[in-house]
Amino acid sequence: MTDGWFAGLDPDDTTAAAERIAGGRAESPEDWPAEAVDAGFAEDADDYYDRLHAATTAATEAAVTERERADDQQLVHAVRAMADCERTGNELAERVAEWGSSRYGEAGSGVGYARRIADGEVGADDDHSDRALRSLAEQVVDVAEETDDLRAYIERTAPAVAPNLSALAGPVLAARLISLAGGLESLAKQPSGTVQVLGAEDALFAHLRGGAPSPKHGIIFTHEYVSGTRREERGSAARALAGKLSIAARIDHYSGDRRPDLERELDERIERIRSRGGDDA
Question: Model pTM greater than 0.85?
Answer without folding.
Answer: no
